[in-house]
Write a structure and sequence with these properties.
Layout: H1 3-8, H2 16-27, H3 29-36, E1 41-43, E2 46-49, E3 57-60, E4 66-68, E5 74-75, H4 77-85, H5 90-101, E6 104-109, E7 115-122, E8 126-131, H6 148-153, E9 156-159, H7 163-171, E10 176-177, H8 184-188, E11 199-202, H9 208-218, E12 223-226, H10 239-244, H11 249-255, E13 259-262, H12 269-274, E14 284-285, E15 294-299, H13 305-318, E16 326-327, E17 333-337, H14 342-351, H15 356-365, E18 366-368, H16 378-388, E19 399-403, H17 405-408, H18 417-435, E20 440-446, H19 465-469, E21 472-476
Parallel strand pairs: 9-10, 9-11, 11-12, 15-20, 15-21, 17-18, 17-19, 19-20
Antiparallel strand pairs: 1-2, 2-3, 3-4, 4-5, 6-7, 7-8, 12-13, 14-16
Helix pairs in contact: 4-5, 13-15, 16-18
InterPro entries: P-loop_NTPase, TOPRIM_DnaG/twinkle
Organism: Cinara cedri
Pfam family, one: AAA_25
Length: about 475
């Protein structure tokens, strides 16, 4: 075997997984070298070996790099392993290293399905992490949840203790997650925001530590439930045991009388200070509409609010700027409108003459009701949710449009502050959280004839509480006629 040709063919530097295995091997460099070279001599953080394939080599314990005294050739710890074990293919070298370490690997992905962190469990009870973005073992704060891509696409998420449990449930087609390593310390360092608006069930291990783990996670969530462990189960019984027993997991989750937990969202000052992750991008930049935000779009009756919205949101659904308003991406939009019937709506849309290059995006990302006459009560919120599911995965909806407030307002007096606030919280926010708690809401409303010069938004009809809760506002006005 020509080892030098083998090492020259190891073009693996772009492989995140191989970099992680190499880092793990360096983390265990002394036992690694002792395994490969039983007769080697350690001296001042170096290993000296004589008579290796009629050669003499030195290995740097810190970096894992080796060099040949006889030939002047050199390499890293991966190529050294290949040389000693006689493996010619990189995949076999990595498998050989993994077998020696007895390693089990779990990959963390981000929202774009890009692998960002590798977690290695090895030698029975040891663990190690590799950050593929920073090429280091340091994990940034806050830590991500396991299985992010499936969390985004699912309505129900089961939280367990440890990646092994989560992976076994995933193999049963159950969306599951955990905090990194399944440790209590990781709970305080984890970003749970992706679980907002989901049906979250926490599955504790059947022991006191498992109960404490579940309660601690429950305190981080605004709403969740904790699974009641069936009676008679052994100490430490968990999802892996349930699968081994042949239990129908879906049926257990559905029929189990889980204990509901409701909390307000709160974080330690430590998290606020140390969380250096990027601020969530505006849904529509700059600060026109933010995640979880409310944009009130006011205008006189018949001024053309609906026509403007249709044009504007068509561009947003295609990911194209409109009057310097820039969408973060092609946005998925569900538009509840109560004024325009099907035939007049299709007439207006066809008059837009949408660019053929953008047509596919607009057609797949933008759904509009046809003159739906409904009051926004509990029953109709469920109807809206079921309608949304006909077009989108609800958790992927970016914008919910309600056009107009007055037509869906199911209270008697819109001028009463308490009544208006109750409507916004119990109806509008309920609709948002049912579909996607991170979606932005656009709410259209009429304005009074008299327009205050100092603060035009005071012209919005009804109670002032509406003006106190929106995160951004827009007004559409008729041209002002000049007086002679």
């Amino acid at each position: 075997m020509d080892f030098w040709n083998i090492t020259e063919n190891f073009l693996w530097k772009d492989s995140k997984h191989v970099l992680g295995i190499k880092s793990l091997l360096l983390h265990n460099i002394k036992p690694c070298l002792s395994h490969l070279f039983q007769n080697g001599k350690f001296y001042k953080k170096k290993l000296f070996i004589a008579d290796v394939q009629k050669d003499q080599i030195i290995v740097d314990m810190k970096a894992g790099n080796w060099s040949s005294l006889a030939t002047g050739k050199s390499g890293d710890v991966i190529s050294l392993w290949a040389r000693i074990t006689g493996q010619a293919k990189l995949s076999k070298v990595i498998n050989s290293i993994s077998e020696w370490l007895n390693v089990e690997i779990f990959t963390y992905f981000d929202e774009s399905r890009e692998d960002i962190i590798y977690v290695y469990f090895y030698n029975t009870n040891c663990c190690y992490t590799w950050n593929s973005k920073t090429c280091s073992s340091d994990i940034s704060f806050p830590k991500p949840l396991f299985n992010i891509p499936e969390i985004i696409e699912s309505e129900r998420v089961v939280v367990v203790k440890g990646e092994k449990c989560a992976k076994r449930l995933m193999h049963q087609c159950i969306t599951a997650t955990t905090v990194m390593f399944g440790t209590d310390k990781s709970i305080d360092e984890t970003d749970f925001s992706l679980l907002n608006g989901k049906q979250v069930i926490i599955w504790p291990d059947n022991n006191e530590a498992g109960k404490q783990y579940a309660e601690k996670i429950a305190n981080k969530l605004s709403h969740c439930s904790i699974l009641n462990i069936p009676e008679g189960k052994k100490d430490g019984w968990n999802a892996i045991d349930a699968i081994a027993e042949g239990i129908d997991i879906n049926q257990l989750l559905i029929s189990n009388n889980a204990v509901a937990k409701d909390n307000i969202s709160a974080f330690s000052v430590k998290q606020y200070l140390h969380d250096k992750s990027p601020i969530p991008r505006d849904i529509i930049f700059p600060r026109i509409l933010t995640p979880g935000g409310l944009l009130v779009f006011g205008g006189s009756p018949k001024v053309g609010k609906t026509d403007f919205l249709i044009s504007w949101l068509t561009y947003m659904s295609a990911g194209i700027p409109f009057f310097d308003m820039v969408p973060a991406k092609p946005l998925k939009i569900f538009y509840i409108q109560t004024d325009v019937g099907y035939h007049y709506m299709r007439e207006r849309l066809q008059q837009l003459k949408i660019d053929n290059k953008l047509l596919n995006l607009v057609e797949s990302n933008f759904a509009i009701t046809s003159g739906a006459q409904l009051l926004l009560d509990k029953n109709n919120i469920n109807k809206v949710y079921n309608t949304v599911k006909q077009f989108f995965n609800p958790t992927e909806v970016d914008i919910i449009v309600i056009d107009s407030l007055r037509n869906v307002f199911n209270y008697r007096n819109e001028n009463d502050n308490d009544v208006m606030y109750a409507f916004l919280q119990d109806r509008v926010e309920k609709l948002r959280s049912t579909i996607n708690s991170n979606a932005g809401v656009i709410l259209t409303h009429n304005i009074n004839k008299k327009l205050p010069k100092e603060n035009p938004f005071q012209s919005l009809s009804g109670a002032s509480s509406l003006r106190n809760v929106y995160t951004s506002g827009m007004l559409m006005l008729k041209p002002i006629e000049e007086k002679n």
